[in-house]
Design brief:
single chain, 2 domains, two-stranded antiparallel ribbon
Length: 285
């Protein structure tokens, strides 16, 4: 069909069909960016899909700094990409406000050290946890004068153990006590691995659910005897705490069993995987 005809003055005039087509094309160019913008805004306001959640990794250090922190952040980001959760990482304590913390289902303390939060930030974090948020602590995140937040009583009560010292890096055997917990379900009953092994002033057993213990007969440097918890979890108000003393080495964050352990712990602390948080009083071999 001919869309253009020559007018009496020799110019080109569009016939009605041509004018309609041009109008449609113009509207298309004008509306496309508007509709796209509305679509993006709408998607941004949609709730997270089932199974999706947000993780804040906090790795501020004021005392000893573990070289494995960088590896840990990378590993958690990769786990998020593989398992459907979003990851933000920071060492800026100003993120610990009620407004910002509500964006996350779990905060990971990744080998933090020292008094990493001021009093206002401590209050915001405590309220966040007790209202239903989650804390996943890795290695040096445990309470203690030469670990994390050794002057904050609430944090010590949440962790239920205080760091005292550690062995050299060496092989040892971790014994899984709760094989149903998502952080230990995929691990062998006796898990041999290389790490730096923490000792605590006293056992947290009876206050927490012990997930795994160390067999002190398999390495040198243990001071806790036949019952040496190394990973545990508990309820804190309406929230959840999960802790593992593993993860000193950079290699830890490339080991599939350790990554499965870490992933399950994050999911338990976030409340997206069910787990028994009831304290266990007697070792179960």
């Amino acid at each position: 069909m001919e869309l253009q005809t020559r007018g009496l003055a020799g110019g080109l005039n569009e016939n009605p069909f041509g004018r309609t087509l041009r109008a449609i094309q113009t509207m298309h160019h004008l509306l496309t960016p508007i509709l796209l913008g509305l679509l993006l805004v709408g998607c941004a306001n949609l709730p997270l899909a089932r199974g999706d959640f947000n993780v804040l990794v906090f790795s501020r250090t004021l005392m000893f700094r573990h070289a494995s922190i960088t590896n840990g952040i990378t590993a958690i980001r990769q786990l998020g990409a593989q398992h459907g959760f979003q990851v933000d990482a920071t060492e800026d304590a100003s993120w610990f406000t009620p407004e910002k913390l509500t964006n996350y289902q779990v905060v990971v303390f990744l080998s933090t050290s020292g008094d990493i939060l001021n009093e206002e930030q401590q209050q915001a974090f405590r309220k966040y946890i007790e209202a239903g948020g989650g804390l996943a602590g890795v290695h040096a995140a445990v309470y203690g004068d030469v670990a994390t937040e050794g002057n904050w009583q609430w944090y010590g009560e949440a962790m239920c153990a205080a760091f005292t010292n550690h062995s050299a890096i060496m092989p040892a055997v971790v014994e899984i006590e709760d094989a149903k917990n998502p952080s230990t379900a995929d691990l062998p009953k006796r898990w041999s691995r290389i790490d730096e092994w923490y000792n605590f002033i006293a056992s947290p057993r009876g206050q927490v659910r012990v997930l795994a213990t160390l067999d002190e007969t398999t390495y040198q440097g243990g001071t806790m005897g036949s019952d040496h918890p190394i990973a545990w979890c508990k309820k804190v108000g309406k929230g959840r705490m999960w802790y593992t003393a593993l993860g000193h080495t950079e290699a830890s964050f490339t080991e599939p069993p350790f990554l499965a352990h870490l992933l399950g712990g994050i999911q338990v602390a976030a409340g997206v995987k069910r787990a028994d948080l009831t304290p266990n009083r007697n070792p179960q071999r």
